[in-house]
Amino acid sequence: MLALAGIIDAINRGVSHLVRWFALVMVLVQFGIVIGRYVFGVNSIWVQESVLYLHATLFMLAAGYTLLVDKHVRVDIFYAKAAPATRRWIDMAGHLFLLLPSMAALLCWSWPSVRNSWKILEGPISVGGIEAVFLLKSLIPVFCVLVALQSIAILLRLVAGEEPA
Fold this sequence. Notes:
mainly alpha; 5 helices
């Protein structure tokens, strides 16, 4: 069980090591847009949309890693003052009854849109933009899978009596 959890952790770590560079690229592209617009008077919708694509990719693909390192937003009313055993039960209930069903629902409800987008190779958001909205929409099921896998890894550790990584 713990070996599987380790594999899932490694997947999310690997994805995060790749997409973390998107933040730097995004800043550089945005800087280039500002310089191009205000210094040289040129603009490109394609380049502007690339910032949106980078931003979406960064946040959607790094969500599993964020869950792995426990840096997600937590509404903490009772959790901080609870005993470790109580926290374990709260974590297990949250993953089993909230997070995993949410990811399953989002995956099921988004899949028809993603499938249709791929069927027609859905074009740009704006005229002159990146002709790959189907790729942008594909981030939704990938997000669901990465977060659900990480949730399963955490559950495996909780069941085994370990603290999540």
